[in-house]
Amino acid sequence: MSVIPSASPVQIDQGALNRLRWGAVLSCVALILLSLAWERWLAPIRPGGSWLMLKAVPLLLPLPGLLRGKRYAYQWSSLLILIYLCEGLVRGTSDTGTSQILAWVETVLAGVFFISVLVFCYRTRPSLTNPALKRSRKKASA
What we know:
The chain has one domain (14-131). The chain is mainly alpha-helical. The protein has helices spanning 14-42, 57-60, 63-68, 71-94, 98-123, 126-129.
């Protein structure tokens, strides 16, 4: 009979979590504003603006969950943001002028969002707050 030692939960630095949360929220809001301004006034594809400004709408979906610190919203928004990261990389390497600069700004904001979300999810994982959920790394003997 083996005895599993009881481990106390790891202390989570709330200050670091708050910085990660606000980093994600602010970069998401900045991406929304950038998308609207980019496709409406700064460098639209067509004069007078284009329907591409609607690409900001999906970024509104995770915002309430991000503001409340809901881990699930952080998890699925990490997948959503990759679309914006790819768009920024493609347009940053293929566009010219103002549009190219805005694309690199989008890439940086999406990168900040992605890293903030990943680190937030890592630091709030259930195995960290509840040691009973921690997986054993021992191999089962055959």
